[in-house]
Amino acid sequence: MSSSFFLVSPTLGLGDTLVQILLISLLLLIPSNTIASNGTETERDVLALLSFKSLIWNDPSGALSSWNVSVHHCRWYGIRCGRRHPNRVTALDLNSLQLSGQISSSLANLTFLQRLSLSDNRLSGRIPELGQMMRLRFLNLSVNYLDGTIPPLPGNCSLEYFSLRTNNLKGVVPSNIVQCKKLTVINLNHNFLVGSISPGLGFLQQLTMLSLSVNNLNGTIPATLGNLSNLYILDLYQNHFTGVIPASLGQLQSLQWIQISDNLLS
Ligand SMILES: *[C@@H]1O[C@H](CO)[C@@H](O)[C@H](O)[C@H]1NC(C)=O
Ligand SMILES: *[C@@H]1O[C@H](CO)[C@@H](O)[C@H](O)[C@H]1NC(C)=O
Ligand SMILES: *[C@@H]1O[C@H](CO)[C@@H](O)[C@H](O)[C@H]1NC(C)=O
Ligand SMILES: *[C@@H]1O[C@H](CO)[C@@H](O)[C@H](O)[C@H]1NC(C)=O
Ligand SMILES: *[C@@H]1O[C@H](CO)[C@@H](O)[C@H](O)[C@H]1NC(C)=O
Ligand SMILES: *[C@@H]1O[C@H](CO)[C@@H](O)[C@H](O)[C@H]1NC(C)=O
Ligand SMILES: *[C@@H]1O[C@H](CO)[C@@H](O)[C@H](O)[C@H]1NC(C)=O
After folding, report:
1. 132-189 pLDDT, tens per residue?
2. What is the CA 8 to chain-centroid distance, rounded?
């Protein structure tokens, strides 16, 4: 509770003890108050969300105005909490709200998160660490101004949907993506990614969409992609791929749409 109080206090005048005492009394009086709820993990979730809010400097629709301590954090706009762990945040959904600012690195502490969707805003800065989000199934940060590199994906990866398209991301696709066996969508188009396609992507049997177009990827197109029997979109347009188009791609029975032009293929 004291740490939560420190997050609130900088907005008050430093010498404003009376207001601070009133605020403490208020927090103590509200039994359903988020800060006073169960245990340190819940407190960490609340602190992570307040930190997220503190780095958003423009919120024209006022979506985050409900994010205040007089409302239980599970009822804040865009937040969903768990059923078995009722105070733990399982979803953060704030799309197309014209939010400007950075994504707080403290989101890394939302270890129960299953769904993180902040797409189609004006968010800049880096993607928070995802390593502790063992339950993350859905990640959509597409259509923002995010830069830096893509952090490693969660260890025991449960990701099904992975879209970071249309940002300013650099560096390589995290190599541990090949461990995310449940992935159905990988959409990373329109970034500045380098490196090559891991042959391991050909073993992600659930993949329906692989879109890597308009990046700076190089190397050859792995023949293993021909094993993706559920793939219906393969989009590798505008990169620096070399070599030949593997004959194995002819086995892709579900394929509806393929775009490989504007590369350095022979
Ligand atoms: C509070 O935490 C305890 C132990 O961590 C847990 O057994 C209990 O179900 C939790 N209660 C709520 C309301 O989350
Ligand atoms: C907190 O959020 C609630 C719900 O949106 C709103 O009615 C209330 O005015 C807010 N309180 C403050 C102090 O902003
Ligand atoms: C996670 O929470 C702990 C405890 O509140 C804090 O010390 C740490 O800085 C947080 N991590 C991040 C990345 O903010
Ligand atoms: C991800 O975000 C983009 C941009 O807002 C949106 O077009 C797309 O439908 C989202 N994906 C899903 C599965 O909701
Ligand atoms: C990995 O995930 C599986 C199923 O989701 C779970 O049973 C297992 O305990 C997890 N392992 C670790 C090390 O978290
Ligand atoms: C791919 O590009 C990197 C630099 O981004 C370079 O170091 C590497 O040698 C290139 N690989 C191939 C196969 O062209
Ligand atoms: C995947 O494709 C490669 C190359 O086409 C092939 O050698 C390999 O046996 C395939 N693996 C599986 C599991 O189908």
Report:
1. 999 999 999 999 999 999 999 998 899 999 999 999 999 999 999 999 999 999 999 9
2. 26
- Helices then strands, each counted (H, E), the chain: 3, 15
Ligand nearest to the CA of 182: 5
For residue 220, give the ligand 6 atom closest to its CA.
Answer: 13
Residues with CB under 6 A from ligand 1: 38-39, 86-87
Q: Which two three-digit tokens encode residue 148?
A: 């830096």
| Minimal-distance CA residue to ligand 1 atom 9 | 85
Residue nearest to atom 9 of ligand 2 (CA): 66
Query: Using an 8 Å Cβ cutoff, are 149 and 170 in contact?
Result: yes
Question: Using 50, 70 and 90 to split pLDDT, how confident is the model at 24?
Answer: very low
CA angle 231, 236, 241 (to 5 degrees): 130
Q: Going by CA atoms, what residue is nearest to atom 9 of ligand 5? A: 156
pTM of the full structure: 0.84
Alpha-carbon gap, residue 8 to 33, rounded angstroms:
14
Maximum alpha-carbon separation in the chain: 75
3 state SS of 174: coil
Distance of CA 186 to the CA centre of its chain: 13
